[in-house]
Amino acid sequence: MDAKLLEILVCPLCKGPLVYKKSEQELVCKPCRLAYPVRDDIPVMLEDEARKLPAEEEV
Prior knowledge:
It comes from Sulfuricella denitrificans (strain DSM 22764 / NBRC 105220 / skB26). The protein is mainly beta. The protein has one domain (3-52): Single Sheet (N-terminal domain of TfIIb), CATH 2.20.25. Helix content is 10%, strand content 29%. The longest helix is centred in the N-terminal third of the chain and has 6 residues, at 3-8.
């Protein structure tokens, strides 16, 4: 994942910062508790494609 791209990407819902989890290939929004998938180094920033993080999962 390109570092410059990570600097400008924000959550499409709350416009907050995202955390890249390389091992899961996801961009995580902590306030929204959503994980956006990264497929072939391309972030999929669609709410319908995001995984809802369960309350017990650490962000």
